[in-house]
Design goal:
Layout (H helix, E strand, L loop, with lengths): L1 H45 L13 H4 L3 H11 L10 H17 L18 H22 L3 H32 L4 H6 L14 H14 L24 H26 L22 H21 L5 H28 L8
Helix pairs in contact: 1-9, 1-10, 3-9, 4-5, 4-9, 5-6, 6-8, 6-11, 8-9, 8-11, 9-10
Length: 351
């Protein structure tokens, strides 16, 4: 009886948590879907092409806004073909292992002051843990497919992801040293004071390394060696079709949005206004708020698309050399520099 009473008492809290999860996941899934549409339209404009412009209903038809909906419906009705020699259980688990961490990382992400699902002190460690789990989906997908092409593609992708994840981890160590906290809300609070007080300036090398490593970790151009057009197959997910393939596709775009949002949070002040402290108090949309985080995140999301339309694909040896011989040494050296700046309380960032 006591257990029933305890469950009944906890029910409102459970409902609140579920509502918060839906409030985060629903807009995120819509954003992921329309990010694919934005990619086709933006790159189309950059390359003087049309992009989707005839899909949808009523006013949507003019701009092709129904394209993500059409893609989703098409993939839902396509058959999921499992190779005869594949490990069926792992074959179906792999897509979930790819998209799960990308979604779970948002549990500790603060969208505004006090606006997060879970406010934990080790939020930065949680983010690192979640983002590092995605590589298991890549490896398992290649191995479970029982295809030498998928397996080689998964090994190549995993090596790239692990290499750049080390550089990303060291870059976040610099953020930890500068903020003096693992809590994501505290990291944003440490950047109070306007544009020149954000971490992008004292941590500029780490900022660049983090974002470029994020592009590489998500296997995006110019680091998309897993799906080179000069090769026969598309890497670790070559044996996947239907919604199983769609989940890998969604995981890639969800990770891109996560990297963009974390870059804005760690280095560009998150929801803080770029105006000096006190200048925008009470001013409509000029003060601190979620809209600033959204603008900064959209800026980094745009950079992902711009890079794809601009840069040629790197060779695999060039990618590995950049990660191991350039980015990791830079991050290690700059962590020492930041530590010295912090200890000496160098004005005006770390006073």
């Amino acid at each position: 009886m006591d257990t029933v009473i305890e469950l009944w008492t906890a029910l409102p809290l459970v409902i609140q948590i579920v509502i918060k999860i839906v409030a985060i996941m629903l807009p995120l899934m819509i954003l992921v879907a329309y990010y694919t549409y934005a990619e086709r339209k933006i790159i189309g404009y950059m390359q003087v092409r049309m992009g989707p412009n005839r899909v949808g209903f009523f006013g949507m038809r003019l701009w092709g806004l129904g394209q993500p909906i059409a893609d989703a419906v098409k993939l839902m009705f396509k058959e999921i073909i499992i190779p005869s020699g594949a490990n069926k259980l792992l074959f179906l688990i792999a897509p979930a292992l790819s998209i799960g961490p990308a979604l779970a990382a948002w549990a500790v992400f603060p969208f505004d002051a006090g606006m997060e699902l879970a406010d934990i002190n080790a939020g930065l460690l949680y983010i690192l843990a979640m983002t590092s789990l995605g590589v298991y989906g890549v490896i398992i997908a290649g191995w479970a497919s029982n295809s030498k092409y998928a397996f080689l593609g998964s090994i190549r992708s995993a090596a790239q992801i692990v290499s750049y994840e080390i550089a990303m981890g060291f870059a976040l160590v610099g953020v930890l040293v500068a903020a003096g906290s693992l809590n994501l809300g505290d990291i944003v609070a440490a950047q109070q004071g306007g544009l020149l007080h954000w971490f992008w300036l004292p941590l500029l090398p780490l900022f660049l390394v983090y974002f470029i490593s994020g592009v590489a970790e998500t296997n995006r151009a110019p680091f998309d060696v897993a799906e080179g057009e000069s090769e026969i197959v598309a890497g670790f997910h070559v044996e996947y079709s239907g919604m199983a393939f769609a989940v890998f596709f969604l995981a890639e775009y969800a990770n891109m949005i996560l990297i963009a949002a974390l870059s804005a949070l760690m280095f560009l002040g998150g929801w803080l206004s770029p105006l000096p402290e006190g200048w925008a108090d009470g001013a409509f949309l000029l003060g601190d708020g979620f809209h600033w985080l959204l603008i900064k995140t959209f800026f980094f999301m745009f950079l992902f698309l711009w890079f794809r339309a601009t840069f040629p694909r790197y060779r695999y040896d060039q990618i590995m050399r950049l990660g191991w011989k350039v980015f990791i040494p830079i991050t290690i050296v700059w962590i020492v520099v930041v530590a010295v700046m912090k200890v000496t309380e160098m004005p005006w960032w770390f006073n």
